[in-house]
Write a structure and sequence with these properties.
Elements (H helix, E strand, L loop, with lengths): L9 E2 L10 E8 L3 E8 L5 E10 L2 E8 L6 E9 L2 E9 L2
Antiparallel strand pairs: 1-2, 2-5, 3-4, 3-6, 6-7
Amino acid sequence: MEELVPSEFYLSQNYPNPLKEKTVIKYCLPDKSLVKLTVLYPDKTIMKELVNKVKEAGTYEVEFDASSLTSGIYFYRLQAGEYIETKKMVLMK
């Protein structure tokens, strides 16, 4: 079975959200791209880099372990080519 190539860049809402310890972030790439997926503190400074490499077109998911963080609002950002999108995630312990 052939995998379908996405027609546009897309960053989905993390699941579950709110999260307790771990969450999954999915994203889609229509073209081969240098991908940077980062988790940000509330002031938008980088906390952790989850992905920083060239990826082929396709759909991907990354698990983020937030068990060492305190409850609060955090952000995650996808940068791929000219595409940049940031979304919010809530950690509740």
